[in-house]
């Protein structure tokens, strides 16, 4: 995901600091988790305490930390005899008044965040994921994985410079490609340990939790990131 202050490039540096100073412990608190890349990196080494005030960030962290690798979706495969991502991408969707992205973030709603065709597909896939959960075709953790996959996938087709504070007045080349949902990229490991998740103000949370290692990297400004990622909160 194109994300403000992503820590992907710092992951080995964080590990190097832990090794250099021989920092010991069983728990690792990632208190501003963002896209969850730090917790994902350490999920097989520590019991991660993941926190971010924004709900979509919580979804991303849960999807990455609850799995060692891409889930098998056994109930879905048993019912449909298909790969869930191929199935979602192949379905045809018909927009109506409940299609939030189509009605608000495409030219239909006077905005150019997404093409109309992609808005329809994003909404259709989002609603279908919800239906699969309600019909007990997927488990809750698989639901989170699909939801996080959708959140990450939409950023590859948005007609923006990276965040959602403004859209281009022309169609960027990536925005006119047909939308597809792809499996969430994650650190694939042999195991994932016991993790806990919060979606709270860190200033309040630190008064209630305990941990051995804390990684604290707050936003760079007093402005909440939700202004840059307001689109994702509706998912």
What descriptive keywords fit this protein?
235 residues; alpha/beta; four-stranded parallel β-sheet; 6% strand
Question: Would you give an account of this structure?
Answer:
With 235 residues, the protein is of the alpha/beta class. 37% of the residues lie in helices and 6% in strands. The protein is built from ten helices and four strands, in the order αβαβααααααβαβα. Strands 3-2-1-4 form a four-stranded parallel β-sheet. The longest helix has 19 residues, at 116-134. It is globular. The two termini are 15 Å apart. The relative contact order is 0.21.
Note the topology:
Blueprint: H1 11-20, E1 27-30, H2 37-42, E2 47-51, H3 55-65, H4 74-80, H5 84-90, H6 100-104, H7 116-134, H8 140-154, E3 196-198, H9 202-205, E4 213-215, H10 230-233
Parallel strand pairs: 1-2, 1-4, 2-3
Count of alpha/pi helices: 10
How many β strands by DSSP?
A: 4
Helix-strand sequence:
HEHEHHHHHHEHEH
Beta fraction of the residues? 5-15%
* Anisotropy-based shape: globular
Report mean pLDDT, rounded to a whole number.
92
Which stretches of 5+ consecutive residues score pLDDT under 50? none
Multimeric state: single chain
Class by SSE composition: alpha/beta
Could you give a quick summary of the protein structure above?
This protein is α/β, with parallel strands linked by helices.
């Amino acid at each position: 995901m194109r994300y403000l202050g992503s820590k992907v490039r710092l992951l080995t540096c964080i590990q190097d600091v832990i090794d250099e100073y021989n920092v010991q412990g069983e728990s690792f608190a990632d208190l501003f988790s963002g896209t969850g890349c730090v917790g994902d990196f350490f999920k097989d080494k520590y019991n991660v305490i993941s926190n971010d005030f924004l709900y979509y960030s919580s979804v991303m962290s849960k999807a990455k930390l609850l799995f060692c690798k891409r889930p098998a979706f056994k109930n879905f495969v048993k019912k449909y005899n298909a790969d869930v991502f191929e199935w979602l991408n192949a379905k045809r969707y018909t927009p109506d008044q409940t299609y939030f992205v189509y009605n608000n973030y495409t030219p239909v709603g006077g905005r150019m965040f997404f093409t109309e065709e992609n808005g329809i597909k994003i909404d259709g896939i989002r609603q279908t994921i919800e239906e699969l959960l309600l019909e007990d075709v997927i488990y809750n953790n698989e639901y989170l994985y699909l939801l996080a996959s959708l959140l990450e996938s939409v950023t590859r087709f948005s007609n923006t410079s990276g965040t959602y504070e403004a859209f281009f007045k022309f169609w960027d080349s990536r925005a006119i490609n047909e939308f597809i949902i792809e499996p969430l990229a994650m650190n694939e490991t042999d195991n994932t340990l016991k993790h806990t998740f919060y979606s709270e103000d860190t200033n309040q949370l630190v008064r209630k939790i305990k941990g051995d290692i804390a990684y604290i990297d707050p936003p760079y400004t007093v402005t909440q990131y939700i202004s840059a990622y307001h689109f994702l909160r509706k998912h």
